[in-house]
Design goal:
Radius of gyration: 15 Å
Strand content: 35-45%
Oligomer: single chain
CATH architecture: Roll
Number of strands: 6
Mean pLDDT: 92
Distance between the termini: 27 Å
CATH class: Alpha Beta
Structural class: alpha+beta
Length: about 140
């Protein structure tokens, strides 16, 4: 995954890509463990994987599909999320294995429009639509930290 994602631990959520067709779809897996940092304080009496982290896994799957559909990002580029619309239908808990079925909707210039269904077994747990864009690191301005 390092080849396709600039993220590092603890921000990598995708465990495996199971299938893909460039420009069409990508299927990926996220295995939710009770040991994940995101679980530690999120409702200790009833551990639930945060929706914001599901959204990050969706974005990471999209980043991989975007690059497979166009070209890998250069060393001086980043892929940024532009927008996300999400709908969460069921909670995700430790022990769940989430399958993301990501679809490429269209590519316009440096913008990638994509969507996904997230399922656990045969149950839909979330749906997403989003956009990604490539940008040069220098275009972000000086680093503030």
């Amino acid at each position: 995954m390092k080849k396709w994602l600039r993220h590092r631990h603890p921000m990598i959520y995708i465990d495996r890509v199971t299938d893909h067709e460039p420009g069409v779809f990508l299927k990926s897996l996220l295995s939710v463990s009770g040991n994940l940092d995101a679980i530690a304080g999120h409702f200790p009496e009833r551990a639930i994987f945060p929706g914001s982290h599901l959204m990050q896994a969706f974005a990471q799957s999209g980043i991989i599909l975007y690059q497979l559909s166009t070209r890998p990002i250069e060393d001086d580029e980043l892929t940024l999320i532009g927008s996300v619309t999400s709908r969460f239908t069921l909670p995700v808990v430790p022990g769940d294995q989430v399958l993301f079925d990501v679809r490429a909707n269209r590519i316009v210039g440096n913008a990638f429009f994509f969507s996904a269904r997230a399922t656990v077994g045969d149950r839909r747990v979330a749906a997403f639509k989003g956009t990604l864009t490539r940008t040069r690191v220098e275009a972000l301005g000086p680093q503030l930290w």
